[in-house]
Design brief:
Layout: E1 2-4, E2 7-9, H1 21-25, E3 29-34, H2 47-61, H3 68-78, E4 84-89, E5 95-100, H4 106-112, E6 114-118, H5 137-148, E7 153-157, E8 163-166, E9 170-175, E10 178-182, H6 192-203, E11 207-211, H7 215-218, E12 223-228, E13 232-241, E14 244-247, H8 255-266
Parallel strand pairs: 6-7, 6-13, 10-11
Antiparallel strand pairs: 1-2, 1-5, 3-4, 4-5, 7-8, 9-10, 9-12, 12-13, 13-14
Length: 267
């Protein structure tokens, strides 16, 4: 089941022209969101923030705006079945919305952590870093390679080896009473989950810094995690850095500080 160009389709194929730039060049933008309690208005869903992300990219690329009422209508159809939506916009303003379920092993990953793999540059590079475009091949390849090697997530780096983001989310680190996340500087996606947590930490008067994650500095972190709008927060139990294995204690209670944001909003 999916929504496309103002219509609901109960099938798993879509009809596109062979000359569609979305098909030929990945010329689309998208945003993926988790819908809480089947409500677009729920504060954790961040519906307006996801629409703003799409609008910002459309304006930057000088593409046509979609029919926003169609998008809301399609989303309301799909959230009856799916807790996760991906909203895609084509250059001419057509909308395409698909749904999926939460990962089956999400609770396990949140409790036990996951193993990460440091991807190499430039093969595993994401283009147009501050936008979510249909050309996500570099990040997708990195994730597939990580899974092939027995890891659950890949971490992308720049030409200097500085850590940027994971293949699906934003990085977080903690040491000596301070939370850290890589600075934007046009190199990473300004994730909506990232923004939510930065605001939360500041409201709680907790230390949060945005900085450059150099290879040597990153190894000093006591905890490393990643966030996105679907999985919320997941710790890394291990990260393979080109053969050097970093190991972390996933039982550290400090993660509860970030988790409190979601718990409080669910009340």
């Amino acid at each position: 089941m999916y929504w496309y160009d103002g219509q609901l389709f109960e099938e798993d194929t879509i009809c596109l022209s062979i000359n569609d730039p979305g098909l030929k060049y990945g010329a689309t933008i998208f945003s993926t969101l988790r819908v809480y309690q089947q409500s677009l208005e729920h504060p954790l869903t961040q519906w307006e923030a996801h629409l703003d992300r799409l609008k910002n990219s459309l304006e930057a690329f000088d593409w046509c705006f979609p029919n926003w009422q169609n998008i809301a209508q399609g989303a309301k159809h799909l959230i009856k079945t799916y807790p996760v939506l991906r909203i895609t916009i084509f250059p001419d303003g057509r909308e395409w919305i698909i749904g999926r379920f939460l990962p089956e092993n999400l609770a396990q990953f949140q409790q036990q952590g996951i193993k990460g793999w440091l991807a190499s540059y430039p093969l595993f590079e994401r283009t147009l870093n501050s936008h979510k475009t249909g050309n996500y091949l570099g990040a997708w390849l990195a994730l597939q390679q990580a899974k092939t090697l027995g890891f659950q997530e890949a971490i992308l780096v720049d030409s200097q080896g500085n850590w940027l983001e994971t293949s699906t989310g934003n990085l977080w680190g903690w040491k000596q009473g301070t939370w850290y996340t890589p600075a934007l500087e046009g190199q990473i996606l300004p994730g909506i989950g990232r923004w939510q947590l930065i605001q939360w930490l500041r409201q709680q008067n907790l230390n949060i810094k945005e900085n450059q994650w150099t290879p040597s500095w990153t190894k000093s972190l006591e905890i490393i995690a990643y966030t996105n709008s679907v999985v919320e927060i997941i710790l890394f139990s291990q990260i393979d850095c080109n053969g050097e294995l970093l190991t972390f204690d996933v039982s550290r209670k400090v993660l509860e500080i970030l988790s409190q944001y979601y718990q409080n909003k669910l009340l």
